Amino acid sequence: MTETSVGPAGQAVNAASPTDGALTGVRVIDLSTVVSGPFATAILADQGADVIMVEQTGAATPVGSHPVRTAETPVTALFASQNRNKRSVAVDLQSEDGKDLVKALVAEADVLVENFGSGEADRLGLGWEVLSAINPDLVMCSITGFGSDGPHAHRPATDAVVQAVAGYMMVQADEQGAPRLVNTIICDKLTSVNVAQSVCAALVARANGAGGQHLDLAMIDAAIHFLWPESMWNYTYLEHQTDMPDLSAIYTLYRSKDGWAMVYPVATEAHWSGMCKALGRPDLAADPRFADLQGRVLYGDEVNEELQAEMLNYTTTELVELMDRADVPAAPVNTREAMMQDSHVQQRGMVVETIQPSLGPLRQARPAALFSRTPSSLRRPAPAFGEHTADVLAELTGRTEQEIAELRALGVIS
Length: 414
Prior knowledge:
Blueprint: E1 4-6, E2 12-14, E3 27-30, H1 38-46, E4 50-56, H2 77-82, E5 86-91, H3 96-107, E6 111-114, H4 120-124, H5 128-134, E7 139-144, H6 159-166, H7 168-171, H8 186-207, E8 213-218, H9 219-231, E9 254-255, E10 260-263, H10 269-278, H11 282-286, H12 293-298, H13 300-311, H14 316-325, E11 330-332, H15 336-341, H16 343-347, E12 351-356, E13 360-365, E14 377-378, H17 389-397, H18 401-409
Parallel strand pairs: 3-4, 3-6, 4-5, 6-7, 7-8
Antiparallel strand pairs: 1-2, 1-14, 9-10, 10-11, 12-13
Helix pairs in contact: 1-8, 6-9, 8-9
């Protein structure tokens, strides 16, 4: 894979001598699987960290090591997107020799991320007490569904299960009150963002003299924290009851002559008056019910009913152009294909093309943050199972070729 740096204008460009990323020099041992951990460590890897993913060998196929690999396609689309820029070491974590190898890697690391499940790292002999004794400066992040304590701590968790407990499905309820899923793995991915941010915060604290520390990050905690600001506004003040409609009563998609558009009707006074003028409805701007933001939220159903009748007079393109001229927030409702072709997405260079060995070209989203001095980069494709085992063990643990061959013969590594 040709190294690709993402510059301040958003375009991905091939770079013979790319600037070091913001996290160059930070080494991360990634013991996580599925999404909540790997997506987090991918963010760190994109920003320059040396992320070494430790995969479980001894399984019949790589599927037993990393569930988003498959026997037919060892680098699936999901795996490719969230394990780029990483190196793979395949180790038998059930063997003492395998655990010793992980400990040797930890001795040379700054960060370790794991999502085995509550208490499982301790049962493996790779818990915080053991690893911090080896490396007191280690930042270790343990990701679980429900945390290290509490009545649900023992439960296995998926994104949908966490959505259910955190209230997301009822926030998404339809007009009849039936709960609905958020149709993306939102809790997994927002947990990942929290992991990446918290790891970086702990590294800053370490640089300021705090030493290493253990981060306990539960998906349920991240999910509730993310939900709170607007979805829990009626549950925030204990002594001042509020009864504001949920955003589901305000946010709506408007039908146009030929499709759908998102127009935001409850924003600033300038937006509201501009929309009413553009639509030829000064009576709406003069209606006392809609005189301020609170009124437009409170009477959201009425606002949407009035606006929907007007939106049907325009095609989606006409409607968005009309709102643009009035400086009102608006956009077409893109399909996934249309999103990739959107002129703004293309101008920002958000979707980049790279090469996955043996599988060919693939599209990926570039890292979101654009650094003016330390750009993120796509340095290497997602690794094959155990692709870097020998190189990493030689580099970080000093194992010789003969020692590595002996470990491989014993089934300790792949």
